[in-house]
Amino acid sequence: MVCTETYKEHIMYTFNAFCKVVIRYAAINAWRERNRRQKKEISLEYLTEEKFYPLNTLDRYFTAPYEEYPVTICNHTVIFTNGELATVLQSLPEKKREIIFLYFFGHYTQQEIGELYGRCRSTIWYHIHSALQILQKEMEVFSNGET
Predict the structure, then answer these.
(1) Residues 63-84: pLDDT tens digits?
(2) DSSP sequence for 94-137
(3) What is the C-alpha separation between 89 and 98, in angstroms, rounded?
């Protein structure tokens, strides 16, 4: 099919008419949306005249709502917000405390900790497991109110 000049002109006029219809209905939808929102909105002046509502808030996320309990392990200070956990962790033997620190806070693998202490991976796993059992028992004692 050969496109003649009149056919091309017809296509252009049809496209222009389509674009005008789309733009007109987009404008109508925007106007309706604006009117719908205006019905629900309340002026800030109205709110402050009726009752005193502060126009700002104060976030308390970054204030320290908890007490901090510093524990020094392997020449590093770890801050705990749980005093019982800090106390129980300090009651562990020094070696178990260092292994727990390296594994949970230093993100060392059991193999790497074993190489540091000259032990095999399974021995390090045993120390971690037994330290966690001690921590669990001591935390249960604290939670039951016994001291």
Answers:
(1) 656 788 888 888 888 888 888 8
(2) HHHHHHHIIIIIS---HHHHHHHHT--HHHHHHHHHHHHHHHHH
(3) 10
Q: How many domains does the chain have?
A: 2
CA-CA distance, 112 to 121, in Å (whole number)?
A: 8
Domain for residue 23, yes or no?
Answer: yes
Beta bridge partners, 73, equal: 76
Q: Does 119 lie in the same domain as 74?
A: yes
User: Which residues form the domain of 98?
Assistant: 69-143
Phi, psi of 143 (to 5 degrees): -70, -25
**Same structural domain for residues 73 and 104?**
yes
- Cβ 98 vs Cβ 74: under 8 Å: yes
Does residue 86 form part of some domain? Answer: yes
pLDDT of res. 123? 94
Query: For residues 83, 89, 92 and 95, what is the CA-based torsion angle, rounded to 10 degrees?
Result: -150
CATH of the domain at 74: 1.10.10.10
pTM above threshold 0.85: no
